[in-house]
């Protein structure tokens, strides 16, 4: 096993990774005999990556290299002859403290922002499904109920190894929704009539790329998923199998969805389904999925925070560590719930930050970190080509995704200003004068 030498290649083989794992110590050592299986890690990857992205890709097709980055990101963890523990540590090893804080900001945007969106989606779904029934509640109450359901596993389970069983049910729920949408779309084809389809919409293609990038946004979680594996040398197989499964699930939804509904395709795609049992089932099941996926995302972020604040049994007693960890996670859930309920147009604001964070975390940063830590010279010719186009995709998605998000924010703020100056304010002044 080599070390970095004047820019030469120092990438590691699976055997190198296994030897580092057996020799290194982090936490209370790196004995992985009690860690989760590679199969559990596979479900974690699919559960985090697949889901709501599946339902948005038909709309992305209407608008118009991630396995490799998942592999080289984990290889970067072992580039210093010891295992780094997080995305932030890889960034810090590459570009110092500034690089670490930049990476932490982007991962925080994803690992906190996406759970907020998931709570919004779950609350909205339950509110709409039960509206007009005896179970009708206000939207904020449904968000709070969803937050409580997420809090239970998030606080009770410490790591992704322990929380991994949720991912199995999350993957199953996503698969069920996909087949419901597929079956209804096939049935609807005869009633939809001729739909317009575009081979490529070039001015919308970069924006669609941003949507696709979001649909593969698992990189911030990968370090913690791999840390929970008994056999980390199987990571390449796990991430390849996991993301390949996601691609298959995405195609089962995206292609038939766009083929049947054409330019009328919506996001999420179940909004195109006719009112009835299939649509209600899809809404409820995808709500179950986001409630199962949210603790996985939050646990990854909480593990980074706990390492940052040194909340571990190595520094505190078991009881004190439990109290501090639970308090921090409860505080995080309160913050997320408050944002979901009270922050206006958070979805559009998150789209702006997501255009930066997802494209950077998925396409750009892993490649830069990998070459920085392992050297630029001595790699196979195809690695340079793949790296170039991966970074190019990330830059294109970042630029046009940001433009699209800014336009959405501008449109929303303009409508708010119109409502205030031409609807709310005149009515208020009329009411005030009448009162006088």
TrEMBL record:
Annotated transmembrane regions: 41-61, 90-119, 139-157, 164-185, 205-223, 235-260, 280-305, 326-346, 352-373, 385-410
Principal location listed in the UniProt entry: membrane
Cellular compartments annotated: Membrane
Membrane topology qualifier: Multi-pass membrane protein
Keywords noted in UniProt: Membrane, Transmembrane, Transmembrane helix
Pfam families: Aa_trans
InterPro entries xref list: AA_transpt_TM (IPR013057)
Domain Amino acid transporter transmembrane: 35-404
Record family assignment: Belongs to the amino acid/polyamine transporter 2 family.
Record protein name field: Transmembrane amino acid transporter protein-domain-containing protein
Species: Phycomyces blakesleeanus
High-level lineage: Eukaryota, Fungi, Fungi incertae sedis, Mucoromycota, Mucoromycotina
């Amino acid at each position: 096993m080599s070390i970095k030498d004047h820019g030469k290649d120092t990438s590691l083989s699976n055997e190198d990774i296994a030897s580092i794992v057996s020799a290194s110590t982090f936490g209370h050592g790196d004995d992985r005999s009690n860690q989760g299986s590679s199969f559990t890690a596979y479900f974690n990857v699919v559960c985090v990556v697949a889901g709501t992205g599946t339902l948005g890709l038909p709309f992305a097709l209407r608008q118009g290299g991630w396995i490799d980055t998942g592999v080289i990101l984990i290889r970067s963890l072992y580039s210093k002859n010891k295992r780094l523990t997080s995305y932030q540590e890889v960034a810090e090893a590459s570009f110092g403290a500034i690089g670490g804080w930049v990476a932490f900001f982007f991962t925080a945007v994803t690992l906190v922002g996406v759970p907020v969106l998931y709570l919004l989606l779950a609350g909205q779904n339950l509110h709409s499904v039960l509206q007009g029934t005896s179970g009708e509640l206000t939207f904020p109450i449904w968000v709070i109920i969803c937050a409580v359901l997420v809090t239970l596993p998030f606080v009770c389970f410490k790591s992704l190894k322990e929380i991994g069983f949720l991912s199995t049910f999350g993957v199953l729920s996503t698969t069920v929704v996909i087949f419901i949408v597929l079956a209804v779309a096939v049935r609807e084809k005869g009633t939809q009539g001729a739909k317009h389809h575009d081979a490529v919409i070039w001015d919308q293609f970069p924006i669609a790329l941003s949507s696709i990038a979001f649909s593969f946004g698992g990189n911030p979680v990968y370090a913690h998923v791999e840390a929970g594996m008994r056999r980390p040398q199987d990571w390449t197989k796990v991430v390849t199998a996991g993301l390949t499964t996601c691609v298959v699930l995405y195609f089962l939804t995206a292609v038939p969805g766009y083929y049947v509904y054409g330019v009328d395709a919506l996001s999420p795609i179940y909004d195109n389904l006719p009112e009835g049992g299939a649509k209600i089932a899809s809404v409820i099941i995808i709500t179950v999925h986001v409630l199962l996926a949210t603790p996985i995302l939050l646990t990854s972020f909480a593990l980074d925070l706990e390492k940052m604040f040194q909340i571990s049994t190595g520094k505190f007693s078991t009881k004190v560590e439990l109290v501090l960890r639970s308090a921090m996670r409860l505080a995080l859930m309160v913050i997320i719930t408050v944002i979901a309920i009270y922050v206006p147009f958070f979805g559009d604001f998150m789209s702006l930050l997501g255009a930066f964070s997802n494209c950077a975390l998925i396409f750009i940063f892993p490649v830069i970190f990998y070459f920085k830590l392992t050297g630029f010279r001595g790699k196979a010719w195809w690695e340079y080509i793949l790296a170039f186009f991966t970074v190019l995709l990330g830059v294109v998605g970042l630029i046009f995704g940001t433009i699209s998000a800014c336009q959405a924010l501008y449109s929303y703020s303009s409508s708010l200003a119109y409502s205030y100056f031409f609807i709310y304010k005149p009515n208020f002044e009329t009411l005030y004068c009448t009162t006088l």
